[in-house]
Amino acid sequence: MVDIRGVSKRFGQVQALDDVTFSVRPGEVFGFVGSNGAGKTTTMRIVLGVLSADAGEVLWQGRPVDADVRRRIGYMPEERGLYPKMKVGEQLTYLARLHGLPAGEARAAVERWTTLLDVGHRMGDEVQKLSLGNQQRVQLAAALVHDPEVLVLDEPFSGLDPTAVEVMSGVLRRKADAGVPVIFSSHQLELVERLCDRIGIIAGGRMVAVGSVAELRERDGTAAYEVLGPPEGWAADVPGVVAVEGTRVRLAPGTDDQQVLKAALAAGPVHEFRRWRPPLTELYRDVVASGSAVPA
């Protein structure tokens, strides 16, 4: 378990983080989303110990993150953190050795991860001669080569083509299935929705929601239905309907949807009646706008 508890950070007059609290469980892929400047990278750097918090703490397995714990973390920064003129294989082996792997184990780990990430054929090339997508794959290999117990990735899918996205998604799920907590930030909300077990939304340095997509959809206890066919205004006086948004109706908690369907049929022909499950893009917009929270 990775626990971020009450973390705050100020840069001059700017409150970058304000009492940020959430956890990432073993074997969980946790998506960390927010607009530019919301506090995602600052949070990750505090988790890594690159920055110190003004208040709060970060714990791994119940103990503070110190130098020993940091060696067990695989970190992928948003900015390229590789030596551009160094060859891929030499660089990854060097980084693995820095993490304490013996020479033979380091070479074997480099071969395994570069093969899995489909850059094994570029081992003898300088990093600067790779495409941006392949540089991103090498950057991920650098985060994985020492077999980390925690993965922290800042925008790992940025600039990748769909094939590379699928390869990297598979690698992250594979690590999570092995029990590794995985946290990554991304602006690609469709990908976050598909890949993540839980999601944290940060806005203005504050966590405004934490939970699964299903929990975010049910944050106010209401349920929305798409109803096509009945004339406009059919739901105005239907018991349990608390809002009408075009062809969608929102029902109060505990409302019998079959009674609502009967009311729709009484008003006119019903061509479609189905539960509306908004995508993460819409949930994100609504949560940030409302500032409502789902507890961690």
UniProtKB/TrEMBL annotation:
Domain ABC transporter, chain residue ranges per copy: 2-229
Endpoints of the signal sequence: none
Molecular function as annotated in GO: ATP binding; ATP hydrolysis activity
Family matches, as PROSITE patterns: ABC_TRANSPORTER_1, ABC_TRANSPORTER_2
Keyword annotations from UniProtKB, A to Z: ATP-binding, Nucleotide-binding, Transport
Highest taxon above the source species: Bacteria
Transmembrane segments: none
Residues forming coiled coils: none
Family named by the database record: Belongs to the ABC transporter superfamily.
Name of this protein: ABC transporter ATP-binding protein
Native source organism of the sequence: Pseudonocardia broussonetiae
